[in-house]
Amino acid sequence: MSIIHKDIAAIREDYCKYKLDEKDVLSNPIEQFQRWFADARHAEVVEPNAMVLSTVGEDSFPSSRVVLLKDIKPEGFSFFTNYHSKKGEDIAAHNKVSLLFFWPELQRQVRIVGYVEKLTQADSDEYFASRPRGSRIGAIASPQSKVIADRKILETRVEELLAAYGEDGTIERPVFWGGYLVRPVRMEFWQGRSSRLHDRIEYVFQKEEWIIQRLAP
Q: Model confidence over 74-129: pLDDT tens digits?
């Protein structure tokens, strides 16, 4: 083993900030998530809404990337993207996804597994209209996940759109861009503990109710 590998193997941190017990969690995992999300914001976690979205493509290989959570609904978690992107194509092929939040400042992570579906056009229109003008232009200009020759292609397209829309022109949401809702069927709340004996509380949706159970670390 090389010295570099030994250095990597030696990286470790003993977690000892908090604990998590079955009696302390709420009966609904989405409400429990909201409680933890509030903690993350209070702790000034950098981009607490950043989450790893994992999908599976037609080639059966998993694919993961960081996206931003944009809403917490009673029924699940929302994010927005280009429907023609790699993740959009994966979702069209397989409607099962996972989400992962990691908040190192709190030594916590949340794992979510569920079914994904498109949000309504009204929901997508509302969020698109709330985005900064530059972000709206960028969403239209970029053929997300497609191979392009160079960055100049994007910059030229942005310039063309800026000229077309002007400073005050209405920028409507393109049909290839919108939101998704992830409806969870399993959620795990992980709290780091000392000596790697972490607390793991899992919610599983069975027969129209959430079952709460502890997992071994």
A: 999 999 999 999 999 999 999 999 999 999 999 999 999 999 999 999 999 999 99
DSSP state of 24: G
Element (H, E) at 154: helix 151-165
Instruction: With beta carbons less than 8 A apart as the criterion, state whether 182 and 114 touch.
Output: yes
- DSSP state letter for 83: T
pLDDT of residue 16: 81
Hey, how many other C-beta atoms are within 10 angstroms of the C-beta on 185? 15
Report residue 146 as tokens.
């497609």
Q: Which domains does the chain have, with CATH numbers?
A: 13-122+175-215 (2.30.110.10)
pLDDT of residue 167: 83
Picking from 111, 62, 71, 68, the residue whose alpha carbon sits closest to that of residue 91 is: 62
Per the annotation, the verdict on 196 as an active-site residue is yes
Q: Please, which pLDDT band fits residue 3 given cuts at 50, 70 and 90?
A: low
Percentage of residues of the chain with pLDDT beyond 70? 98
The catalytically annotated residue of 35, 133, 196, 214 is 196
Question: For residues 170 and 149, what is the distance between their CA atoms, to the nearest angstrom?
Answer: 30
Strand pairing report for 50-56 and 108-118: unpaired
Distance CA 34, CA 25 (A): 12
Q: Which among 196, 186, 173 is positioned nearest to 14, based on CA atoms?
A: 196
User: 50 CB contacts (<8 Å, ≥6 apart)?
Assistant: 66, 67, 68, 69, 101
